[in-house]
Structures are given as C-alpha cells and as structure tokens.
Amino acid sequence: MGKRKHEYAKKLKEQKAATYFAVLRNCPTSPRKMNQVAALVRELTVDKALNILKYNTREASGRLEKLLQSAINNYEQKTGQAANENLYIKTIRVDSGSQLKRLRTAPQGRAYRIRKRANHVTLILDIKNSN
What we know:
- By secondary structure, this protein is α+β, with helices and mostly antiparallel strands.
- It has a single domain, classed as CATH 3.90.470.10.
- The chain has helices at residues 3-18, 31-41, 46-55, 59-79; strands at residues 20-27, 87-105, 111-127.
- Strands 1-3-2 form a three-stranded antiparallel β-sheet, with helices on both faces.
C-alpha cells in the first residue's frame, strides 16, 4: 500500500473510532416502512427514542429498537461510561437492500411479479453539547 493510501486509511480508522454507530443489513422489511418508523425517532434523545420504539405497534419498530440498543452498547464499550441524557440519534439512514423476485400465478396463463424487499439501516449516535 502506498504512503498516501496508508495515511488516508489511518485517518478513516481514527474517524470511525470516534463515532458510535450500529448497522443492520438485509432486514426483510420494505425500505418505505422502515423509513416511516425511522422518521419518528430521528434526532431525538436515546431515552425518548427507546420509549417511542418500545410502544409502537409496527414490526419495524422492534428491529429498530434492537439496533438502537446495539448502538448504545457500542457507545458504552468505546467510551467506558454509561449512556447519559446528552446522547442522541444524529442520523438514521435507510437504504434499499436486495430484492427477492417471485412470481404469483394470474388468470389466463399470466404471472404477476412480487418483489420481496429488504433494507439496510445505519444508525449514528452523538453527544449534544450543552452550551
């Protein structure tokens, strides 16, 4: 590896060590449904977000709650201190994942296409400055 690439990789590694995040890959829920739940908790404190996700009836909220718990645990492991009231959700990004393409039989010898969608969710935590 060249010197420039090595320095760039080192810089990225330092940035990654300073961020607290969790990633959920290939979640078998459509990206639109997951994004609707993610919009409920975007830029909220961790405590409020956990309460909202816990009592929401959508299926995606259970998966997002588990992902948020994982991000909190990552924060606690990296910093060595418990989560406090200044910890909030900086960004939640929902991207579309792979699609399983299936066929459903239809009248007169035709077939309808079914797309079973999946998504990727990236959740990044940050600390609010109390200025």
